[in-house]
From TrEMBL:
Gene: ddl
Catalysis performed (reactions): 2 D-alanine + ATP = D-alanyl-D-alanine + ADP + phosphate + H(+)
UniProt keyword Disulfide bond present: no
Protein name, per record: D-alanine--D-alanine ligase
Species of origin: Weissella hellenica
GO cellular component: cytosol
Lineage: Bacteria, Bacillati, Bacillota, Bacilli, Lactobacillales
Amino acid sequence: MSEKLNIAMLFGGNSSEHDVSKRSAHNIYDAMDKEKYDVTVFLISKDGIMMNSKDSWRVFEGEDEDAIVAAAKEKMDMTNPLTPIAALSEMANIDFFYPVVHGNLGEDGTLQALFRLLKKPYLGPGIAASAMSFDKDLTKRILNQAGVRNTDYVLVTDQNYKDYTFDELTAKLNSDVLFVKAASQGSSVGVSRVTNAEEYAVALKDSFQYDYKVLVEGGLDKPREVFISILGNENPRASRLGGIVLPEDDVWYDYNNKFVDASGMVFELPAKMDDTLAEEITDMALRAYKALGLVGLTRMDFMIDNNGVPYLGEPNTLPGFTNISLYPQMWEVSGISYTNLIDELIQYGMAEFERQNKLSYDFVSLGEERMGEKQYNAEVAK
């Protein structure tokens, strides 16, 4: 590469995973090869407004975000509908967008649509794949159609929630333990494990803060949780599996375990398991990746029941890159360093952009394209 690529790294975001994004962005930035990339950072505030690069860098370096954002907004024309993305005017020379925005507006296809409008390559899956993978209900529908095993569930909405009691759901799902999940959230936000009607009512109220669609799943009895990282476009490859052993008093891998305090957990990298089971999980993950139309990267989360049967939990299309995040760690034990992983991710993003640019959005006569104008006209004349 003769010249450096100009990378725009977007971090923060209007989601419950704002702070997780900031930690991920720092790790990615530190690991990037500065001989290959010039990186400009852009903070998306908690209310969804993009800050200019100067203010974003100050936040990135640890200055008080709330104060910086408040001062910046005082100078903005908030009556202008384009104000939330006005900082894009600084991005004329950007070669590649690297979103590190987890959750709402980052993984759901919104930023991907913006990058598409700007006609710039970017990291990760496209609009439709991002949106489908972010919605747990849509994900499960696609997984079921593709024959990829996942846990049974009931879809509860703000319109029908009165139709289901805790006892009815436990009977329908054949489980005394239920998991209540907002359909469009990540990192265990809006997710609760419940064992009685009182806990279910509280969990439902919590999940409805984040989405009007809520999944109620039957819980497995103390399942083993394992994870696998996927990398690539048309021909993706899978890392070795990683696993976790929770502290004795914990019964599931929640937000606190993932991002706040992992001191009590034991990471199995790689996870120890029978080769046949590992191959089954790898196959399920790759089939799900293709069925969902994913490219670039995804972490797939699995649960294994007491009979050794694996269930796909969910895909994470922009997984965390914090100090305790599993996606980069699983590639480390699979032979790809953090810096080389970032290089590959950028290359896959560039390749997918070039592939998509080969598609036509105007009418093209297939006959003329395939046969050439002279032969085509002769065929038409017959």
